[in-house]
Amino acid sequence: VDFQITHPVVLVHLVNKTTGEYMMKTDPSRIVGGGSECITNTSGAPERCPFILPIMTLPYVLKGEYTPRWEEGLLFNEELAHIMQRDAMLMLEILDFGPHLSLEKYPDGWYRVAWGFCILLAANG
Questions:
Q1: Maximum Cα–Cα distance across the chain
Q2: Are strands 88-97 and 9-16 parallel, antiparallel or unpaired?
């Protein structure tokens, strides 16, 4: 048991397992994960992000529990046929955050607890 973990979240990435890069959207103007999904271009202006950004769960507050349970749906607003490609993979990260973390040790503010992956389509289709 890691007592440093107080309110973990799950960050879900949709990546190409061959290149390791985020999967591209079928329509760059579509909001796939929520929010504005804008990035800043080289001239400093916002523009739509062409790839599928990660989606994060809400924090699960561990109140005397040691096993978090997430019972929320996450939706990638993308065509299923596009997501279910041979090279598609879900990468899952369990992260924690908070004032108890040293920014010297965790400069981005995230304590990386664990990770895993799921290949979405078997090699035989």
A1: 49
A2: antiparallel
Smallest Cα–Cα separation from 70: which of 82, 55, 62, 58?
A: 58
Span 39-50, pLDDT tens digits:
777 787 767 788
CA distance 68 to 59: 9
Q: How far is CA 3 from CA 8, 11, 68, 84, in A?
A: 12, 20, 13, 38
- C-beta of residue 6 within 8 angstroms of C-beta of residue 94: no
pLDDT in tens, 52-109: 999 999 999 988 878 888 899 999 999 999 999 889 999 999 999 988 888 889 889 8
Distance CA 92, CA 94 (A): 7
Check if the beta carbon of residue 61 is closer than 8 Å to that of residue 7: yes
Encode pLDDT of 5-26 as tens digits: 889 999 999 999 999 999 999 9
Is-contact 9 69, C-beta < 8 A?
A: no
pTM of the model: 0.85
